[in-house]
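Quick entry between incubations.
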Amino acid sequence: MYYVFLALAVGLVILSVIVFFGRVIPGPSVFDRLTGILVIGTNAIIFLLLLGAMDERLGMYVDMSMAYAAIGFITLLVLGKYFERKGDVDR
Amino acid sequence: MAAKTTAPSTHSRKRAEIVHFVFLTSALFVFWFILSGKTEARYLIIGFVTALAITVAARPLLILPPDQGRPYWLSLWDLPWPRVALYIPWLIWQIIVANIQMAMIILHPKLPVDPKVVQFRKHISHPVGRLALANSITLTPGTITLDLEEDGYTIHCLQGGFAGGVVAEDGEGVMPAKVGAVFGVEPVSTTRQD
Amino acid sequence: MRKSFGSIILNVAFRHLTPFLMLYGVYVLVHGHYGPGGGFQAGALLGLAVVLVQMVQGTRAEWRIGVSGGIILACLGALIYLAIGLAPFIWGGNFLDYGVLPIAATPAEARALGILGIETGVTMGVMGVIIVMFDLLTRDNGEREE
Amino acid sequence: MTYLAVFFLVAGFFFILVGTVGVLRLPDFFTRMHAVGKCDTLGMLLCLIGLMIYEGASLVSLKLLYIWVFLLMANPTATHVFCRAALKCGLKPWTRMEGQG
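Done. Structure below.
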């Protein structure tokens, strides 16, 4: 039962990311698109962890998701700084 | 800006430095052990050396800029831990309440949002206290910290009613009062940041 | 990366996150052959930790490496990689054939140490390149390296 | 125990989906950040608790706890940094005008 649920959950994460492109593609300002990185990043962490739970090798996937969380956070900050300096929001 | 707390003497600063050094090294070493999970001597030695090296390298990071008074250690060691431990469950409860409210607004067919920007002032001497207050505001009902200059917080509220959580008509809101009670009372060895 | 960035919130948060990020980078480097990662990921993590410090603090950064320092670091990494890769020739081995190196009792041990050395070179290379890239990317308009 | 883990995971996914729907429906960047900053964070945290319960007491659970603390600190910080950058960029917060739906 747990595995069926995990598979369902992985499907839900993928669905959530796909639905989110409804905001990333039209997003009026560049910051709306950058929220996509934030949300898809967090979803990717959950996705990796669920795959690990299905694979019975959570230990390895936890390492990956930790690296992903750290790199995603810093990349987001760098992008935020870049666009703050540029000052044009309609790209 | 002068420090609110009494400036510690050279002796107590030396002591604070040693305490901080030991604390950060052991915290990093415990983190290494959690990550690695290996008890072989080689990995433990590599972990210890790395923790020591990073503590030495990160030493300047954890001193607040000395241009306003003397340098102080910005260490997690300083936190009033018992009160923080009592604060965290309350915060988690607030986060859950906030999310249920968010879910109700978002799933409401009419989307009843009425955004509004409010400002308030609150002095907290401990920098970690400011971080905690700003992040708590972001995580709890209908409010996001937009900006933080000196003591002035700029808050974006999803609905006008949510502003009551942070700014009240008379005095201060629930959240700043709570965080202020956790961090503000005890004189901690930190000064204001630029 | 002259002007500092972010408010007090970021300035406080990054001070506590950076040491743990660095330690995680070293962990990924050392345990590269047990789990995912290795030199490249470790280099990315360490480099981004330095980038974070430079970005938040601006000119007054404690760990200011900058463009020239990053390039030196990257070249040093490539040098280490080449040196360890070519060292087996002296003892009659092949390129990257660390088993013949007289640095440990058994060839397997020597191989593990050699891989660690190679990975360190890769880490330094990636770290330097990432620092250079982000330093140039977040530079203010018309700013030049002095 | 499995049921408890599944309960937490279901709650987490509910909030993640609510956050996604909110980002699609809300009118401007700042209100969308409300959905992102709150719902996504809580969804992640609940999912991680579910996985921790499933994993039981082990080093992996401690690593998950580390991610938990990291996200609790990093996610609101990232939200704040974004909002501040957008504000500095000149993005005006949307307000409900007279006569608009």
